[in-house]
């Protein structure tokens, strides 16, 4: 559903201002490729925080505290 809406918005942009629509269709893959390292960094950072949290809560879990 989101892809169809995006397509119709792009068609509307193409009808109103075709150079901007062509620029958007050319720059979209470039922006996506440039955003990949930031997504990977966010994934790794989330994993590091989960590891630190698990290490900090390990003594309590060993003692049997289940918490909410």
In short:
The chain contains two helices and no strands. It is mainly α and 68 residues long. It has one domain (2-62).
Q: Any descriptors?
A:
mainly alpha; elongated; single chain; 0% strand; 2 helices
The number of domains is 1
Number of strands: 0
Helical fraction: over 70%
Largest sheet, strands/sense/barrel: none
Cα distance spanning the termini: 37 Å
Order of helices and strands: HH
How many helices? The count is 2
Task: Give me the secondary-structure category.
Answer: mainly alpha
The stretches of 5 or more residues where confidence is low (pLDDT under 50) are none
Shape: elongated
What is the percentage of strand-forming residues?
under 5%
Name the assembly state: single chain
Overall average pLDDT: 92
The Cα radius of gyration reads: 22 Å
């Amino acid at each position: 559903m989101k892809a169809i809406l995006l397509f119709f918005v792009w068609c509307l942009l193409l009808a109103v201002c075709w150079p901007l629509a062509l620029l958007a269709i050319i720059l979209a893959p470039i922006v996506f490729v440039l955003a990949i390292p930031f997504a990977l960094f966010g994934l790794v950072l989330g994993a590091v925080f989960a590891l630190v949290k698990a290490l900090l809560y390990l003594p309590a879990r060993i003692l049997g505290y289940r918490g909410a």
